[in-house]
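User: quick one, fold this
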Amino acid sequence: MSAASTQPIISVSNLSKTFASGLQALKNIDLDIRRGEIFALLGPNGAGKTTLISTICGIVNPTEGSVTVDGHDIITDFRAARSMIGLVPQELTTDAFESVWGTVSFSRGLFGKRPNPAHLEKVLKDLSLWNRKDSKIITLSGGMKRRLLIAKALSHEPQILFLDEPTAGVDVELRRDMWQLVRSLQAGGVTIILTTHYIDEAEEMADRVGVISKGEIILVENKAELMRKLGRKQLTLHLQNTLQLVPPELANYHLELANGGSDLIYTYDTQGDRTSIATLLEDLDRAGISFKDLQTTQSSLEDIFVSLVRKNK
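Assistant:
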């Protein structure tokens, strides 16, 4: 890889935002987004996700700090920076009596791009909107309006796509279509940043995950690494006979009794080796505890996220 291609496509440095009301929405944020990645920004309501995206897109002015988009400063070189970005906001604010074709053509023109009907046709076809190209926006269903938001964001062929809660309140079929589109955009070299409440979405789609809480980035990690480091596994043993308490010779395993003493739960890190389970089973046998069944479960990104945010309270 050349040095240029390893440069982050977005670089956020010491970014803070305090609104006139005195609310500090962002606190000293440093964040680099890599070219071509899918980056998921997770955080509870009011954590600063939308403010961060709006600042990177040049919609909100920072109180301090800087943002560059492919080397262009978002304030001093606004047009060049903004033309690289497609933003899919949560709400559609467009003239209800405009046609689908009219609104995507207008969006493209806003960025000073020459007309390219073939590109707009492809975008509308990819989003299953082509047969509604002449329809007025007011006649579209909620799901179609959401698709239109994406079409507008893609109209000027951006290199970076921001999706702010893209599938909130969207049906399963549309979610699936959207993820297919996101993957094909990534395959075409587009960098994608999404905020989402649906952690399974981040788990499935993202290369890296950032967690924001109370205006601060509390963690940025490769998704697979995050799952490995913070994921925990549980082994549940369904016992033949109920136990009143865990025998003292098994104290080192920190076992929990559950389900009225008929289940034993052993929690271990995913990094932990499998041998500890083998020794646990031998020690149970020695203690005369037999079980009829066992199962393992692994914590999801959601469990990890909840515990991180709780720690930050």
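User: anything notable?
Assistant: The chain has two domains: 3-227, 231-299.
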